[in-house]
Every structure is written in structure tokens, then in C-alpha cells.
Amino acid sequence: MAHLLANHHNIPRRWELEKCRTKLKDCGGSWRNIGGQSGKTWELQPRQMVRVRGFVVQSSASSAEKVGSVGYLVNECGWKVRRLVEKADEMRMVAQVQAEAFHVPVALFNDFFFQFFQAEVLSGLAFKLRSSPPNRYACLVAEAMANVSDSQKQLVGVVDVTVLRDQTVMDNLPPEAEEYLYVSGIAVLKAFRRQKIATALLKACDVLSTVWGLEYLALRAYEDDLGARRLYTSAGYEVVSGDPPWLTTWIGRKRRVLMIKRCNLNT
């Protein structure tokens, strides 16, 4: 917190972020409802490529740069990140990736408990998509695009982003901050780890925060998960606080740290 406030003079003015967001829109980017009357499925519909400090918001009209008509937020390290399309098969793939990452194996009937956990993840995803406005929540997915057909494309990474204003986080932001983008549920298939997929997902979060006009991103990591913390630190996040003892040490739970970054994507 002290470091954030000490560098308060370096925080970009709101008009600078608005300028960046306007430029994205001027290049043809917009969210289009493709969910019919239900209005629950949205996709990014850009018309030309936009570069934001090395990140690419894909908008080529060629089939090689599209999944259907969904644009990519980031093309990074051989991986492309886009917003989830609300289709049953794709939602199941997302649930599989997150369930594989977060399921804790048990000694007996592990397969049964894994399937149950995966069903819970899928149910939670469906609820968030159904109940959240399209500019307040998004599930972002990463996939490889190396000369494969649509039927062969595989989702290899997932991350959830939600616009929040929880006071425990707001206390660590400058007074003028109204909301922030909370990053959670980041997961990569085991067979594809250590291939910069998580890095691409985090950069897509930066791009989306700029499009939505949010200056800050926040996430939580376990204090003893040094690998995850190195990843987030390299992406610009800084530790500003941690869980109090009565939520962790005194009841035997692992302690988490709150990490925050200021989005600094400028054209």
C-alpha cells in the first residue's frame, strides 16, 4: 500500500485510459450480443488490429485469426486469448481445465469426486455467465492456433475476471479509485504448463481492464506458492497485504496475500 501511494503521481489520469479505450473503439472494437433474446452470449467484434504496448487485439477477418467471429485480445508467445463463447462444449472444456487445476485428490473414489467437482465448476461458470452483465464478468480462454482446424482446437488455459469494489481491496487503492478488476481461477492444463500460457492470460486481463476503463487489477495468491507469486510479480503485481491471523494461522488455513497492479497499457 505504501509503495502504491508513494507512486501515486505516476498513476495515469483517467482521461489517458479513456483515450486508450476510445482508440480501441475507433478501430472498430465493440461487444455484440449473439445470444438472441436471452442476451447471455457476447463476443468482441473488432475490424482491424490494435496494438497496445506490444499486446495485440486481434481482429483480422481471416479464418486463421478467428474462432467463428470472436476476436482475440492477445496473441502472445504462440498462444491466443479470447473471451469464452457460451456454448455447452466450450463451457465443459473450461470446467475441465479448472477442475484439473484445483481438484485435491482423495485416497478413495477419486474419479467420482473429480467428476463431482468438475460439475460444480461448470455449474458455477453457468451461473456467473447467466447473472453477470457482459462488462462486469468475463471468462477468458487460451488456445494454440498452429495450423489446426476448429474441431481440433483445444482450450489450454482459463482465467476469470470480475469488476468488484470490495472494501478490503479498495483500502489499498488511491481514494479516487472506484472499482477494480479482480483476477481469479487462473488455470492451465498440466500438459501445457511452463509454456507462457499464464503470462498470455494475465496480459489479456490487462487489455480487458483497459477496454473496460479500469485502472487497477487485483488477485490473491497463497503466501507459500512462490512459483505463482513470481509469475504475478513478473506481470507487475505487488503484495500489499495478507490475510489476518484469525482467518489462517489460528484455524489452520493457508495464508493468502493480496497483490495489486496499476494497468499501464498506453498507445
TrEMBL record:
GO BP terms: mitotic sister chromatid cohesion
Pfam families with a match to the protein in the record: Acetyltransf_1
PROSITE patterns membership: GNAT
GO CC annotation terms, alphabetical: NatA complex
Matching InterPro entries: Acyl_CoA_acyltransferase (IPR016181), GNAT_dom (IPR000182), N-term/lysine_N-AcTrnsfr (IPR051556)
GO molecular-function terms, A-Z: N-acetyltransferase activity
Annotated N-acetyltransferase domain residues: 92-264
Name the UniProt record assigns to this protein: N-acetyltransferase domain-containing protein
The species this protein was found in: Carpinus fangiana
